[in-house]
């Protein structure tokens, strides 16, 4: 996967809005192998489409420390955790085109599921402690930002 080059962006921005929108979508398709639905939906709104694609492109350009495979696996995990079927389906297709094995994709989904579960438990138990405090204060855990629910090691654990 690549991003739009600055030279290409400059050329696209010189076009009339509708032509610029078509050019941007063509570039997106060449990068991802398809055009995400939301971008197709915005095609007739170049004043929204162009800035969105340019913003997304500038973010993707910053991922110099992560390879495209890792970025795609993160995208799959986040899409699964957010339960965005449309994004998940698209990122699964992109991963397949990239040759990412099914087992690696499943690992990303498992990690997302574990963190999602931990998030529900951490959120719910903190709210429970706030609204329905334990009568035995010795059993109450601290309400700090540490999450002891998930077993995934953090960078601090290294």
Summarize the structure.
This protein has 158 residues and is mainly alpha-helical. Helices cover 65% and strands 0% of the residues.
Can you describe this structure?
- This protein is mainly α and 158 residues long.
- The chain has two domains: 93 residues, no CATH class; 55 residues.
- The protein contains seven helices and no strands.
- The longest helix has 30 residues.
- It is elongated and about 70 Å long.
Sequence-ordered SSE layout with sheet pairings:
Elements: H1 6-13, H2 17-32, H3 37-41, H4 46-61, H5 68-81, H6 85-98, H7 102-131
Percent of residues in helices comes to 55-70%
Overall residue-averaged pLDDT value: 85
Number of helices: 7
Q: CA-to-CA gap between the ends?
A: 31 Å
**How many separate domains?**
2
Indicate the proportion of strand residues.
under 5%
Count of distinct strands: 0
Element-by-element helix/strand order: HHHHHHH
Give the overall form.
elongated
Oligomer: single chain
């Amino acid at each position: 996967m690549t991003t739009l080059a600055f030279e290409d962006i400059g050329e696209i921005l010189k076009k009339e809005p509708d032509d610029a929108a078509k050019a941007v979508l063509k570039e997106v398709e060449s990068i991802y192998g398809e055009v995400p639905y939301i971008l197709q939906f915005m095609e007739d709104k170049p004043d929204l489409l162009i800035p969105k694609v340019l913003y997304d492109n500038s973010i993707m350009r910053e991922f110099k420390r992560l390879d495209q495979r890792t970025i795609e696996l993160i995208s799959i995990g986040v899409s699964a955790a957010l339960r965005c079927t449309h994004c998940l389906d698209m990122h699964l297709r992109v991963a397949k085109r990239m040759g990412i094995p099914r087992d690696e994709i499943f690992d990303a989904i498992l990690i997302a599921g574990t963190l999602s579960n931990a998030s529900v438990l951490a959120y719910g138990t903190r709210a429970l402690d706030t609204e329905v405090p334990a009568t035995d204060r010795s059993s109450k855990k601290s309400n700090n930002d540490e999450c002891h629910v998930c077993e995934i090691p953090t960078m601090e654990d290294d």
